[in-house]
Design brief:
The chain is of the alpha+beta class. It has a domain of 89 residues. It is built from three helices and three strands; from the N terminus they run αβββαα. It has a three-stranded antiparallel β-sheet with strand order 1-2-3, with helices on one face. The longest helix is centred in the C-terminal third of the chain and has 25 residues. The N and C termini lie far apart (114 Å).
Length: 136
């Protein structure tokens, strides 16, 4: 007679004991990968091929109210769109680029608010069609 495996009660007991153990094996603790200019700390837990676990990336924000403020380069790293975490130089370069863009956009808004209209007005043309025409 063939052996059909372990007794179901023993198998259930071993499964229960296995659930009490930590989810990750020793050596795959969260590693601090980097910190951004906002103070967010980024962590990574490497994948475990033996247990079929994928790499996990997450961050901890120092300010609970502004947890959704993430630099774009770190957001891409968290979502696995890039393999390597961003460097400090890259983050500073992107900050300068964003500040430059903000200053140009504020100059552009100031230029538009100095009496410029959306559409030019000419005296020889009626503003409301038919307003000069009065039927007899």
């Amino acid at each position: 007679m063939s052996d059909r495996g372990m007794n179901p009660f023993i198998k259930a007991f071993f499964n229960f004991v296995r659930t009490l153990k930590p989810a990750r094996i020793i050596g795959s603790r969260p590693q601090l990968i980097g910190v951004d200019h906002l103070g967010n700390r980024y962590f990574e837990i490497k994948n475990d091929i033996n247990r079929n676990l994928k790499t996990v990336r997450y961050f901890e924000s120092p300010n609970i109210d502004h947890w959704d403020e993430l630099p774009p380069e770190w957001n891409a790293w968290l979502r696995m769109r890039r393999m390597d975490p961003p460097t400090i130089e890259e983050s500073m370069r992107n900050l300068q680029r964003i500040e430059k863009f903000k200053s140009k956009s504020s100059e552009n808004q100031d230029h538009q608010q100095k009496g410029k209209t959306d559409f030019p007005k000419f005296d020889e043309y009626e503003q409301k069609p038919g307003s000069k025409y009065k039927p007899d």
